Amino acid sequence: MNPIVKFCGMRSFEDYQKAVSTEASMIGFIFAPSKRQVKAADVSEWTRAKPYKAHQQLVGVFVNESVDKMVQQSIEAGLHIVQCHGSETIEEVTAVKKGTGALVYKTIHHHEGALEEMRQYRDIADGFVVDTKTQDAWGGTGVTFDWQAIPKYTEEANRQNVPCLIAGGVTVDNLAKLQRYRPLGIDVSSGIESDEKKDERKMMAMTKAVNNTYQAPDYLGRFGPFGGKYVPETLMFALEELEKAYESIRHDEEFARQLHKELKEYSGRPTALTHAERLSDHYGGATIYLKREDLNHTGAHKINNALAQGLLAKKMGKTQIIAETGAGQHGVASATVAARFGMSCKVFMGAEDIRRQELNVFRMRLLGAEVIEVHSGGKTLKDATNEAIRHWVANVHDTFYLIGSVVGPHPYPMMVRDFQSIIGEESKKQMNERIGKLPDEIVACVGGGSNAMGMFYPFINDDVKLTGIEAAGKGTETPEHAATLTKGRKGVLHGSLSYLLQDEDGNIIEPYSISAGLDYPGIGPEHAHLRDIGRVKYEAVTDDEAMAALQDLCQFEGILPAIETAHALAYVKQNAQRMSKDQVLLVCLSGRGDKDVHTIQQVLGGDNQ
Amino acid sequence: MNKLTEERFQKKENRFVPYIMSCHPTYEASIEIALTLQEAGVDAIEWGVPFSDPLADGPVIQQAGDRARKAGGSLRKALEGMKEARQQGLQAPVVLFTYVNPVLSVGFEKVIEGMKEAEIDGILIPDLPFEESEELRKLCNEAGISLISLIAPSSSHRMEKISRLGDGFLYYVTSLGVTGTRQSFSDQISHSINELKKTATVPVLAGFGISTRDQVRHFQSIADGVIVGSALVRFIGEREQALLSENESKEALKEIKEFVQELIS
């Protein structure tokens, strides 16, 4: 549910009119001495001249006023809610309720005993406003309090089954941060003003942001029920340290500048947006565009995240990077970044994968990385990840764990998503420049899900259909697949709660796909959430379907895609004809297929000779 | 009745708590080993649940888990096995040591129910840190089962809030990294354990890497007791064939008993 929005401190008929025209559900007036003070008679006149909307409620704010005056003014102004903003007693609040028949909200000023105070008004207050406590003013100062405390207030309000609004310094700029604490409502006054007047644009921006913003994860790293931090206590410290470091660079201009420079001058961004004309004609239907992440340095989107995390590691003063890898692509990206930034690098890789991906192992070693062979479990990506985490636990002081996908404990899924969002942001800009509109549908392949998350996230509030493609291997009706969302159950692996391929005892099942980058038994927690809330649709395609689509792209566009990417292309092959020519289908071409030539040759050898 | 919270365990000195894996090497053998540990005079037993991806464990316990799974080991089997061990006379307090995914797979309520039936006194889930444990903590409280918390040398400011909710005992992780034997330990550990003991309302047991008699003595002098896992699990693993043989199993169990008595002595 979207939080309640209360716009408070209307000083004039103009202010009031602006508030009525927004989607705010509460409109507040100050009856206490303040620069925003108004008279009950004015409010009554304004509401006669411009009736508020049916769902809107009028709120009057009083500070230590006598019960009689509160009752009298409330009735005169036609208030729905009386907000007792001072140190009104339980008896006074009860009397106002009786005298007016209106609802009474109690303001709690955030301090150590605030929660206890809130409990005292149980069954008496019809709602709460939590505001900043300042020495010489009863709130309304535009100063925020420590929002970490919000969940406790929300929990108490939920227990009492009443609303609880957060006030104090809320602005359009800090709203996104506030929403991570999931307030039940927000109360804004100075944050929607410019030059002492209510600013319509700020009001609109705020209601739009509240009503239309997909907000995840919350402050605990949860995407709905998914995500979280399921790691041993020995790692909690490292995750907290990482979270703090990430928050400090998230909006830091200097960091953004450095990263932008690396992405542009080292990796070659922005990557091209290619109109696949011949492929579109061949499939007959949608106009197909390709976002060319294959043109990145090292040949895939993985470098976007590796560069960003590498910079962050450096900033945190870490000297060693560790990474896990399945097919070797993320290992290569990590080794590349370590070389670029002058750090040492250990890549954990399952013995089985090392055997299958000989060339990438050589490539990583060439780049100066140490490849550590993992012999536990099934000796593949899942086991390499276990081993990397174990190594991290023991070497947390100087080691940065560079996770390659939107998986792992919080903050990794959020951080990797943010670092990969450059894919979607560029696409959005390029689409607008090229065709003057957004695509109708976007499709991306999903293993852990980092290219898909990076592509989807900037479009999440837009009217664009989003589709993720999992690997069905030899078919989801066989045991050999990696279709986590299609066939998995909720569970915890590698630090977060998501969907997992597992047996009835909760042991993880080894997945299968022809594509080494998609055979992961889990999936990023945000994908699990987006599936469950219906925002993204997920389908699975088989090895054979992917290989057929791979050949099409080679033959009609002269582009050899990675086998992972070919899964997204297989969906395009099957669905493009259902769309019309004026509809645009955008594909995230996550990587190039040079690394797969050997596999492709083995599969297609017979046909193509 | 929760035997961890009873005076006998709470007031004991130099507690010694071994870890063994259920169904390792087989269902029956692990029950007999549990009974043998009781004879050896241990103060409680950690009863491990095999899992495919034991993040906090080293190779010894992971391999024992793989072996146990081949022998049919699982969370359900661990509960069933302990119920049987109780019927055969096991009195010592028991802590179920399991990763969170098997618990989620069976369901919190069902696991608690099974624990009550098997008279298991506590549960320790290494990958369920404080922040994620609220729901289970509530259920454990209602069922009178201790939810054992881990505390690490790196816990720093988290130490106080974790120790405040300590139940049964607190498990102090004596070295960063995974379970497994160690040559040496950091000096800071003893300082950190002393700090923890000041705020803790339950005994503080030290574990992770403790494998020799000297290490046991050392940590018993600092903490309220020790936990030994990998060293014992390896010792058991080395006697797998003997434990499975009708003629030799008695001798193997005797050796296990002597091994533990030597550690305690």
UniProtKB/TrEMBL annotation, chain A:
<dbReference type="InterPro" id="IPR023026">
    <property type="entry name" value="Trp_synth_beta/beta-like"/>
</dbReference>
<keyword id="KW-0456">Lyase</keyword>
<dbReference type="Pfam" id="PF00697">
    <property type="entry name" value="PRAI"/>
</dbReference>
<comment type="pathway">
    <text>Amino-acid biosynthesis; L-tryptophan biosynthesis; L-tryptophan from chorismate: step 3/5.</text>
</comment>
<comment type="similarity">
    <text>Belongs to the TrpF family.</text>
</comment>
<dbReference type="GO" id="GO:0004834">
    <property type="term" value="F:tryptophan synthase activity"/>
</dbReference>
<feature type="domain" description="N-(5'phosphoribosyl) anthranilate isomerase (PRAI)">
    <location>
        <begin position="6"/>
        <end position="207"/>
    </location>
</feature>
<dbReference type="InterPro" id="IPR036052">
    <property type="entry name" value="TrpB-like_PALP_sf"/>
</dbReference>
<dbReference type="GO" id="GO:0004640">
    <property type="term" value="F:phosphoribosylanthranilate isomerase activity"/>
</dbReference>
<dbReference type="InterPro" id="IPR013785">
    <property type="entry name" value="Aldolase_TIM"/>
</dbReference>
<keyword id="KW-0057">Aromatic amino acid biosynthesis</keyword>
<feature type="domain" description="Tryptophan synthase beta chain-like PALP">
    <location>
        <begin position="268"/>
        <end position="590"/>
    </location>
</feature>
<dbReference type="InterPro" id="IPR006653">
    <property type="entry name" value="Trp_synth_b_CS"/>
</dbReference>
<keyword id="KW-0663">Pyridoxal phosphate</keyword>
<dbReference type="GO" id="GO:0005737">
    <property type="term" value="C:cytoplasm"/>
</dbReference>
<dbReference type="InterPro" id="IPR001926">
    <property type="entry name" value="TrpB-like_PALP"/>
</dbReference>
<feature type="modified residue" description="N6-(pyridoxal phosphate)lysine">
    <location>
        <position position="302"/>
    </location>
</feature>
<dbReference type="Pfam" id="PF00291">
    <property type="entry name" value="PALP"/>
</dbReference>
<keyword id="KW-0413">Isomerase</keyword>
<comment type="pathway">
    <text>Amino-acid biosynthesis; L-tryptophan biosynthesis; L-tryptophan from chorismate: step 5/5.</text>
</comment>
<comment type="similarity">
    <text>Belongs to the TrpB family.</text>
</comment>
<keyword id="KW-0822">Tryptophan biosynthesis</keyword>
UniProtKB/TrEMBL annotation, chain B:
<comment type="function">
    <text>The alpha subunit is responsible for the aldol cleavage of indoleglycerol phosphate to indole and glyceraldehyde 3-phosphate.</text>
</comment>
<feature type="active site" description="Proton acceptor">
    <location>
        <position position="46"/>
    </location>
</feature>
<keyword id="KW-0822">Tryptophan biosynthesis</keyword>
<protein>
    <recommendedName>
        <fullName>Tryptophan synthase alpha chain</fullName>
        <ecNumber>4.2.1.20</ecNumber>
    </recommendedName>
</protein>
<comment type="similarity">
    <text>Belongs to the TrpA family.</text>
</comment>
<dbReference type="InterPro" id="IPR011060">
    <property type="entry name" value="RibuloseP-bd_barrel"/>
</dbReference>
<dbReference type="GO" id="GO:0004834">
    <property type="term" value="F:tryptophan synthase activity"/>
</dbReference>
<keyword id="KW-0057">Aromatic amino acid biosynthesis</keyword>
<keyword id="KW-0028">Amino-acid biosynthesis</keyword>
<comment type="pathway">
    <text>Amino-acid biosynthesis; L-tryptophan biosynthesis; L-tryptophan from chorismate: step 5/5.</text>
</comment>
<feature type="active site" description="Proton acceptor">
    <location>
        <position position="57"/>
    </location>
</feature>
<comment type="subunit">
    <text>Tetramer of two alpha and two beta chains.</text>
</comment>
<dbReference type="GO" id="GO:0005829">
    <property type="term" value="C:cytosol"/>
</dbReference>
<dbReference type="InterPro" id="IPR002028">
    <property type="entry name" value="Trp_synthase_suA"/>
</dbReference>
<keyword id="KW-0456">Lyase</keyword>
<dbReference type="Pfam" id="PF00290">
    <property type="entry name" value="Trp_syntA"/>
</dbReference>
<dbReference type="InterPro" id="IPR013785">
    <property type="entry name" value="Aldolase_TIM"/>
</dbReference>
